[in-house]
């Protein structure tokens, strides 16, 4: 299975945290590139290979996120990797920032490594059965306009709100800004569908 680092490839079958349950963590996370590097290093110590950290952060040529980019509306993080003969995935969107969710994943991996160090290999194997990666949603699967625009709730939204979300997403998706024609076409279709649904 091919997984994209950008945009976020949330694992199929894993429910998203409802927007009203997303909260601030007690972590003291560092900067984005450092948190990504920590996760990759910890997985390397575990023996994982082919790590892909998938978020809605644009990436530099070296694969790390731009440190100064504005935080995206969707703070979810999914980390895919090969381990013990299969692809696994840790995904977290419980916390308010990507950095916090990266730190939560790092801490989870660290705890599993602790089990391995303490001689509980069977516990490690059992733990990873729950993290087997299901196929990520197909890039060609039709997403709702709310998903495309990054709306994490089912509440009402007006035309001005739709336009604001559209403009924010267009900055990332426009071909001149590192996006693609397909991504921009999906965004345009989502705005049209939103207008149609909210029309009086």
How would you sum up this structure, described in words?
This protein folds into two domains: 19-129, no CATH class; 145-198. It is mainly alpha-helical and 200 residues long. The chain has a three-stranded antiparallel sheet with strand order 1-2-3. The chain has helices spanning 32-46, 98-117, 121-129, 145-149, 159-173, 181-198; strands at 49-54, 77-83, 86-92. 41% of the residues lie in helices and 10% in strands. It has six helices and three strands, in the order αβββααααα. A hairpin with a 2-residue loop joins strand 2 and strand 3. Helix 1 (32-46) runs parallel beside helix 2.
What descriptors fit this protein?
200 residues; mainly alpha; 2 domains; three-stranded antiparallel β-sheet; 41% helix; 10% strand
In percent, how helical is the residue content?
40-55%
**E-strand count:** 3
Largest β sheet strand count, sense and barrel closure: 3 strands, antiparallel
Structural category: mainly alpha
Strand order of the largest sheet: 1-2-3
- Outline: elongated
Instruction: Please tell me how large the radius of gyration is.
Output: 18 Å
Please report the distance between the alpha carbons of the first and last residues.
43 Å
The low-pLDDT segments are 136-140
* String of helices and strands: HEEEHHHHH
Strand content: 5-15%
- Put simply, the count of helices is 6
Number of domains: 2
Q: Give average pLDDT, whole number.
A: 81
């Amino acid at each position: 299975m091919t997984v994209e680092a950008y945009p976020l490839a949330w694992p199929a079958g894993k429910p998203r945290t409802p927007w009203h349950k997303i909260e601030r963590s007690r972590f003291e996370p560092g900067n984005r590139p450092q948190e990504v590097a920590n996760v990759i290093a910890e997985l390397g110590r575990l023996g994982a290979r082919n790590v892909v950290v998938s978020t809605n952060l644009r990436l530099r040529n070296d694969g790390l996120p731009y440190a100064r980019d504005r935080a995206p509306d969707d703070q979810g993080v999914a980390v895919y990797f090969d381990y013990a003969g299969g692809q696994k995935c840790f995904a977290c969107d419980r916390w308010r920032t990507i950095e916090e969710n990266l730190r939560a994943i790092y801490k989870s991996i660290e705890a599993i490594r602790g089990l391995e160090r303490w001689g509980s290999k069977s516990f490690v194997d059992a733990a990873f059965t729950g993290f087997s990666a299901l196929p990520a949603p197909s890039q060609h699967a039709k997403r709702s306009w709310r998903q495309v625009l990054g709306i994490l709730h089912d509440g009402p939204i007006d035309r001005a709100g739709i336009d604001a979300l559209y403009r924010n997403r267009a900055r990332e998706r426009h071909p001149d800004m590192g996006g693609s024609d397909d991504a921009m076409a999906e965004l345009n279709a989502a705005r049209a569908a939103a207008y149609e649904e909210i029309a009086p």
